[in-house]
Specification:
By secondary structure, the protein is α+β, with helices and mostly antiparallel strands. It has 10 helices and 10 strands. A 6-stranded mixed barrel has the order 2-3-8-5-7-6.
Length: 376
């Protein structure tokens, strides 16, 4: 008996009871569909979150370490940070404070930022950000709305009047710098020459990590004078969370595939019991045990291949449906290689479960002595 007749014989045997074979394959369909779809959903969530938060992974925030008695960063500290970030990104020293900002009879509390280089951190929705901030105030969107400000309006801060030169765009990013409730002034408007923090806008996440390492090595060589916060660490934590969530979902879905395996096990047991005499005749006329075993395993494999293919196909269509019908999900996070791995992996897992489930019934039927099989 060759492999090709074994395949034809297996197909014929499965066709004898189409309903039972279909129900067994349906279990594999559901199992593969659940594993692949939940795996892809988790992966899409992770990729979407990474896309939304990807920008913050390039920022490094350097602050004075209050626990070590350091209250501010000096110009020398800023120079050291500039050396560490040279060729890797832009360094923006900031002076921060808080104050009541008023316009006519309206007033609100705002976060003050002092910097001469607002373009490195902010974007304007009205007006233009100056290349070198020498005069005037740049107000955040929330401050402008509360005080009804626009470009050309005047605001008063601690007795000083400033003309609004730009209104900042609303921020959609997660970052310690909050532009919506900010008023950005030139550094010269502050009485101190020291800085509250330094923001490094690196060119990539790897560059941000390199800058952070060098800043720690330089400024904290003797004592921990500064705190270096890499926002990329947030992304790593989020990635670890989604990886754990994904593993949990796939594990949960695997239970359904195990149940499908039990169904195939039952189908194969019933099928071999019904064909006990037929198998006995085959063994009596000289068909080898390995050929009978091969034929029965091919039947189990066919159930797994058919069920796995349909399950993977339906899961792929469900993934495409996500991009088509959910606005927040784009094709850039759906049509990626990692999602294809879930489809292929779930399909392969379905076939393996089918083979393992059919192994014992096939071995039992093939191992029975022909005389005992013919007795029924």
């Amino acid at each position: 008996m060759t492999r090709f007749p074994a395949l034809l014989l297996a197909r014929r045997n499965l066709s004898r009871n189409r309903l039972r074979s279909t129900l067994a394959a349906l279990g594999i369909v559901i199992g593969v569909l659940a594993i692949a779809t939940l795996g892809i959903l988790g992966n899409v969530l992770q990729l979407s979150a990474a896309n939304e938060l990807g920008g913050i992974g390039n920022q490094v925030i350097v602050s004075p370490n209050a626990d070590a008695g350091v209250d501010s960063l000096t110009s020398r500290d800023v120079q050291e940070i500039r050396r560490a970030a040279e060729g890797r990104g832009t360094v923006v020293p900031l002076i921060t404070d808080g104050a009541v900002v008023s316009n006519g009879g309206r007033q609100t509390f705002a976060q003050l930022y002092g910097t001469d280089d607002p373009r490195a951190l902010f974007a304007a929705s009205d007006g233009h950000l100056p290349a070198r901030h020498r005069q005037g105030a740049i107000v955040g969107a929330s401050v402008a709305e509360r005080l009804r400000l626009q470009v050309g309006s005047a605001v008063e801060i601690e007795g000083n009047r400033y003309r609004v030169v730009a209104v900042l765009a609303e921020s959609e990013e997660i970052t310690p710098i909050q532009p919506d409730n900010a008023v950005v002034l030139p550094e010269s408007e502050f009485v101190t020459d020291d800085y509250s923090q330094v923001v490094v806008q690196a060119r990539s996440g790897e560059a941000a990590s390199a800058v952070a390492r060098e800043v720690r090595a330089t400024l904290n060589a003797r004592t921990d004078r500064v705190s270096v916060f890499e926002l990329g660490s947030i992304l790593e934590t989020i990635g670890e969370f989604f990886a754990l969530l994904n593993a949990f979902l796939v594990g949960l879905a695997s239970i359904s595939l195990v149940v499908a395996g039990v169904s195939i096990f039952n189908v194969m047991l019933m099928s071999t019991a019904e064909r006990r005499q037929e198998i006995g005749v085959l063994r009596a006329v000289g068909v080898q045990k390995v050929d009978v075993l091969r034929t029965l395993l091919v039947e189990a494999a066919l159930l797994g291949v058919a069920g796995g293919f349909v399950g993977a196909l339906l899961s792929g269509l469900a993934a495409v449906g996500l991009a088509l019908f959910i606005e927040q999900v784009g094709f850039d996070v759906v049509l990626v290689a990692s999602n294809a791995y879930y489809l292929v992996g779930a399909f392969a897992f379905g076939v393996v479960v089918s083979l393992v489930s059919g192994l014992y019934p096939a071995w039992k039927a093939a191992s029975e002595r022909p005389v005992e099989s013919l007795r029924g």
